[in-house]
Specification:
Chain A is 75% helix and 0% strand. Chain A is mainly α. Chain A is globular, with a radius of gyration of 25 Å. With 295 residues, chain B is mainly alpha-helical. Helix content of chain B is 71%, strand content 0%. The chains are: A mainly alpha (341), B mainly alpha (295).
C-alpha cells in the first residue's frame, strides 16, 4: 500500500473512534441534566384545560417517551441515540414540538455559520497581514503602538469585550439596536425584499461581528503571526539569506510568511471547524438567533434531540478540520512532510 | 542543591524577569488587584444583606461604603467588588492548580508511553478537545447545580481545562525525547526517572508555567461566561455574578455606570496583567528572543 493511503486510513479510523468517544461522553453528560422535557410538556398540556385520566396521562407519557427515544432501559435508550447519531437525525425536537430537531437546527445554522465564517476569515487575513508587515516596519513607534494595543486586546474574551461594546454603542452613542432579532421569512421575490433582508442581516449581525473581529484580528491573529514571524526571523536560514543579500521582499514572502503559514493555517482550520457550536455568549448577549443561543435553550429545557444535534455537528466539524489538516493540508503547505514512495 | 542556592537562583530569575517592562507593568496590575482582594477581609458583615444600604446611589466620597455607590439590591459596590475579586482569583488559581497539573501529568504519561497505552491516551485527550468547552460546562453546571459551591466550580472547570495542556505537553515531550542528548543520556546509563526529571522536565516546565498563568485567565473568563447565563453560584460574589446582576437589573440602560464598569474594568485588568506576566516569562524562557548576555 502507498504510505499516504495507509496514513489516510489510519487517520480516518482515529477520527471515527475519537468522535464515538466524544459522543458518548456528551450523551452521558446531557442525560445527567435533571430536567425532564416530557413532563414539562405534559404539564403544559394539562394547563391548557384538558382533563386527562391518570391512565390516559400515563399512556400519553409513554407515547411521548417512545417518540423521543426515552423509553426502555438506559441501554435501549443509549442504543436508540447511538443509532440516531450515525444518521445525524435525532428525531423530534421538544422546543418546537412537531418539528424534527434537524429542521430547527438547519434554520439557525446559516446565522451562526455565516457570522463566524465571515468574522474568522476577515480577522485571520487582517491579523496575519498586519502581523507580518509590522515585523518589518522600521518605525518603532507604529509597531510598538500596534503591539501594545494587541497585547491589551489579546487576553480579553470577546464576550467581555462585547459588554463594553454594548455600553459604548448602545448606551453612550446609540448606533446598534439591541432589540431581539427576529428571523424574517426570507423571501426574495423582489429586489426590495432582497434589500430588506440584507439590511436586516446587517443590522442584526454587525454588532456581534464587530466584537469578534476586533478581538480576534487585532488580538489573537496579530499576536500569533507577529510572535511567529519574529521567531522565524531569528532562524539561521533567514539570517543566512539576509547575509547572502537576498531582497527583503523575497525573504518576507518566501522565507518568513511561507513558514509561519503552517501553524497559522492549522489554527484557521481549527477555528473554522469550530463554527458549528456558534458564539454562545456573544449570541446570548446580543440576542442573536444562532446555534449557540439555540443550544443554550435546548440544554436549559432538556431538549436532548436539538442539543445532541448541535453538539454532534460541532464535534464533527472540529474532527473533520483536524483530519483535513493531518491528511491533506500539511502535505501541501509544509515542505518538510513528504512521503517516501 | 541547597535551599539558599535555590532561593538565590529564584531571586536571579526574578531580577532578570524584572528587566522586562511588560513584566513590571503586569506585576504592578496584579499587585494592585491582590491588595484590593485582600481588602475583602475588612468588609463589614452587613454588606452581604440586601437593602442594608440605600439603593441605586451613585458614588459619594462620604464613606468607604459609598465610594462606588450602591446597587439596586442596596449593597455597596465597593465591598461586592473586592470580595468578587478575591473569589474570582481563588477560582482561577485553584482551577490552574488542578487543571493544568492534571494536563501536565497526562501529557507526560502520554508522551512517554508507547503502543496501545499511547493510542488510548491520544484518543482520550482528543475526544475532550473535540467537545465544545462552554456548552459542556453549561451542561455540567446544570447537572451539578445542587452541589455547586465556590470549591466545586474549579473542579468543574478542570474537567475541561486539562485537555489542551495535555496535548501540548505530549508534543513537547515527544520532541525533547527524540533529541540526541536524551539518547546519549540513556546510553550513558542514567536512570529513566532521572532523565525525565533533569533532561525532559526543564523543557516542559517552562511551557507549563506560562500555561498555568493562562489557565488562571481562562478559568476566570469561563466562570464569567457561566455567570452570564446565571449558572454560577449566584449567592456568592464573583466578577461573573457581578455582571449577571448588572445584566439582570438592566443597570446598563439605567445609566448605573458605577455598577457596570468595575467588573468589566477589573476583568480586563486581570486578563491583561496575567497575560503580560505570561508573555514575559515565555520570552525569558525562549533564549532566542531573550537578548544577549544571558546564555
Amino acid at each position: 500500500m502507498h504510505p499516504f493511503v495507509k496514513h489516510l486510513v489510519n487517520r480516518t479510523m482515529v477520527m471515527v473512534i475519537t468522535l464515538f468517544i466524544a459522543f458518548n461522553i456528551s450523551y452521558l453528560l446531557i442525560r445527567a441534566i435533571p430536567t425532564s422535557a416530557v413532563d414539562a410538556m405534559l404539564g403544559a398540556i394539562a394547563q391548557l384545560g384538558q382533563r386527562l385520566d391518570p391512565e390516559e396521562y400515563m399512556r400519553m407519557r409513554q407515547v411521548l417517551l417512545e417518540l423521543f427515544g426515552l423509553s426502555g432501559s438506559p441501554l435501549d435508550q443509549y442504543l436508540t441515540y447511538l443509532k440516531r447519531f450515525f444518521t445525524l437525525d435525532f428525531g423530534f425536537s421538544f422546543i418546537v414540538f412537531p418539528r424534527p430537531a434537524r429542521e430547527i437546527v438547519l434554520r439557525y445554522l446559516p446565522w451562526s455559520v455565516g457570522l463566524l465564517l465571515f468574522t474568522t476569515v476577515i480577522s485571520w487575513t487582517l491579523g496575519n497581514i498586519i502581523g507580518v508587515i509590522v515585523s518589518f516596519v522600521k518605525n518603532r513607534y507604529i509597531s510598538g503602538a500596534l503591539e501594545n494595543i494587541a497585547i491589551v486586546l489579546y487576553p480579553i474574551p470577546y464576550y467581555v469585550f462585547s459588554l463594553a461594546l454594548i455600553y459604548i454603542f448602545a448606551y453612550l452613542i446609540p448606533i446598534f439596536s439591541l432589540s431581539p432579532a427576529t428571523m424574517p421569512a426570507i423571501s426574495i421575490a423582489s429586489l426590495w425584499d432582497l434589500i430588506n433582508v440584507v439590511f436586516h442581516i446587517l443590522k442584526t449581525a454587525s454588532a456581534p461581528a464587530l466584537s469578534i473581529i476586533v478581538i480576534s484580528a487585532l488580538g489573537w491573529w496579530f499576536i500569533s503571526s507577529r510572535t511567529l514571524s519574529l521567531a522565524t526571523m531569528t532562524e539561521d536560514y533567514v539570517i543566512y539569506a539576509r547575509l547572502r543579500g537576498i531582497d527583503i521582499g523575497r525573504i518576507r514572502g518566501r522565507y518568513v510568511l511561507r513558514s509561519i503559514m503552517v501553524p497559522q493555517v492549522t489554527a484557521l482550520a481549527l477555528a473554522l471547524g469550530a463554527v458549528f457550536s456558534g458564539a454562545l455568549v456573544t449570541e446570548y448577549i446580543f440576542a442573536y438567533p444562532g446555534l449557540g443561543s439555540l443550544l443554550y435553550q435546548a440544554i436549559i429545557i432538556g431538549d436532548y434531540p436539538i442539543a445532541l444535534t448541535i453538539l454532534s455537528l460541532s464535534m464533527i466539524g472540529v474532527t473533520l478540520a483536524t483530519w483535513f489538516l493531518d491528511t491533506v493540508v500539511y502535505y501541501l503547505i509544509d515542505p518538510r512532510i513528504r512521503f517516501a514512495k | 542543591m541547597s535551599t539558599s542556592l535555590k532561593i538565590y537562583a529564584f531571586i536571579k530569575i526574578f531580577k532578570s524577569l524584572f528587566k522586562y517592562r511588560r513584566f513590571r507593568i503586569g506585576l504592578a496590575i496584579i499587585t494592585i488587584i491582590a491588595i484590593l482582594s485582600i481588602a475583602s477581609l475588612f468588609s463589614p458583615p452587613q454588606y452581604k444583606r440586601w437593602y442594608a444600604y440605600p439603593k441605586d446611589r451613585p458614588p459619594q466620597l462620604t464613606s468607604i461604603d459609598m465610594i462606588l455607590g450602591t446597587t439596586t439590591n442596596g449593597r455597596p459596590v465597593f465591598w461586592i467588588m473586592v470580595n468578587a475579586l478575591a473569589n474570582s482569583l481563588y477560582i482561577g488559581l485553584l482551577t490552574a492548580l488542578i487543571g493544568s497539573h492534571a494536563g501536565l501529568l497526562v501529557g507526560l504519561l502520554a508522551g512517554l508511553s508507547r503502543g496501545k497505552t499511547e493510542s488510548a491516551f491520544i484518543l482520550l485527550i482528543d475526544s475532550f478537545i473535540v467537545m465544545p468547552g462552554l456548552p459542556i460546562l453549561i451542561v455540567l453546571a446544570l447537572a451539578l447545580k445542587q452541589s455547586m459551591t465556590i470549591l466545586t466550580i474549579p473542579l468543574i472547570l478542570s474537567i475541561i481545562a486539562w485537555a489542551w495542556p495535555a496535548r501540548n505537553v505530549r508534543s513537547i515531550t515527544l520532541s525533547v525525547i527524540s533529541k540526541d542528548f536524551i539518547t546519549i543520556a540513556s546510553f550513558s546509563g542514567i536512570k529513566f526517572f532521572n532523565i525525565l526529571l533533569h533532561e525532559v522536565m526543564p523543557y516542559v516546565l517552562g511551557w507549563h508555567l506560562t500555561n498555568f498563568i493562562n489557565t488562571i485567565i481562562w478559568a476566570i473568563g469561563m466562570e464569567t461566561a457561566l455567570a452570564v447565563f446565571g449558572l454560577s453560584i449566584l449567592s456568592e460574589d464573583t466578577l461573573g455574578t457581578m455582571i449577571y446582576w448588572v445584566l439582570n437589573y438592566n443597570a446598563l440602560f439605567r445609566g448605573m455606570w458605577w455598577w457596570l464598569l468595575p467588573p468589566i474594568i477589573l476583568l480586563i485588568s486581570i486578563f491583561v496583567g496575567f497575560y503580560l506576566i505570561s508573555v514575559s516569562v515565555s520570552s525569558y524562557l525562549n533564549p532566542r528572543l531573550r537578548g544577549g548576555g544571558q546564555q
